[in-house]
Amino acid sequence: MSQQKQFGVWMDTEHATIVGKENSEDGAIVIVAHVKGEGVVNNSNEKSQNNEKRTLQAKYFKEIATHLQNATHLHVTGTGQVQEQFIHYLADTPQFKNVKTKECTSNKMSDEKLLTFFTEKLN
Fold this sequence. Notes:
alpha/beta, Nucleotidyltransferase, domain 5, five-stranded mixed beta sheet, 5 strands, 27% strand
C-alpha cells in the first residue's frame, strides 16, 4: 500500500475535515485541512436560490477536492446525503474517476476522535 494515497473526509453541508496519511512510510493519519462551505442567502426567487445553492455546493466540493491530490482511496463520512453527492461529484471529475471510494454516516466528532476513526478505516 506504499504507493497509495489514502484520504478520509468527514463532511456535512457546511463543514468538511480532510485527513490523510502524512507519508507512506509510517502511515500516520493527520488532519490535512478544514473547509467551510458558504450558506445560501435567502432569495425571493426560488429558481435563483436553487442555482446559487448548486453553485456554492460545487465551489465547496471543488475546494475539498484540492486537498485530495493523487488520491487512490477515499473514505467519506458525515451527516445527511452530502457525502453521496460529493462522491458523485468526484466520479464526474476526470482526475478522481478511478479513486476507490467508501462511505458511511457518522455524527460530528472532535479532531482526535476523527483521526482515530479514520485510522481504523484507512488501514
